[in-house]
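A quick aside before the break. I want you to see a complete sequence-to-structure record at least once, exactly as it would be stored in a machine-readable document. Don't worry about memorizing anything.
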Amino acid sequence: MQIDSAFSVVAPINDVWDTLMDFERVAGCVPGAQILNKLSDDAYQIGMKVKLGPVSMQYKGQMSVLERNADEHRAVFQGRAQETRGQGTAEATVTLHLAEAQGSTRGTVSADLALSGKAAAMGKSVIGGVTEQMMALFAANLQALLAEHSSEPPRGAGQEAPAPLPVSPVPAASAPLPPSAPPSAPASPPPPAPVPASLTDNSLDALSLAKGMLTDQLSNPGKLVGLLAAVAFCAYRLGRRAGLRSGRP
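That is the input. The structure line, written in tokens, reads:
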């Protein structure tokens, strides 16, 4: 079964060639394909998931580079794979050729495909339609990969350090704050109000004097006895005087 397809990307032909020859990198552009192991520079163990109509199949096999001509931008690959969950096989010899066309690069792919098992029953029309869809997705992914590669800085090129962020000056205070005042001493209690003159009579003075004398006498037993004797004598004299006034003997 012969399947022919084409793709086009906006990039220099040499950039497209170099990218396509980096199989480990470009494998992610092929829907369902992955590099499982690198056996040599020209041989890789691959895995492939394919959906043909309602049928999904998974293959595992090996891809080899039979021919690679950088001057002519031409390469020939061969692949053999077998279903991981079935008896079907797939074998293909694929020829890739690149050509420049009005600022873009056009690639043509010609595959001589041999299938067995469930895939073989699908027919060329179904397989051809699926191949066209896969090629359209491959071209879009390859274009994005090329754009990403062109935007990367050259390897080993020094990168300028980012400019430091501007630091906003701290606004100065409009006026210095006055020094904190020391805590004020607690206010002394107001002096006692003067005692009215009407209360400072002889009776108050005599009472204060008597209280002072009594306190002094109580603190000394000898003086206390003398005080009691004096009080008794005074009481006797006062009683005698009162009796004389009343006419008693």
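Two observations worth writing down. Residues 1 and 69 are 25 Å apart (CA to CA). The chain has two domains: 2-150, 202-246. We'll return to this after the break.
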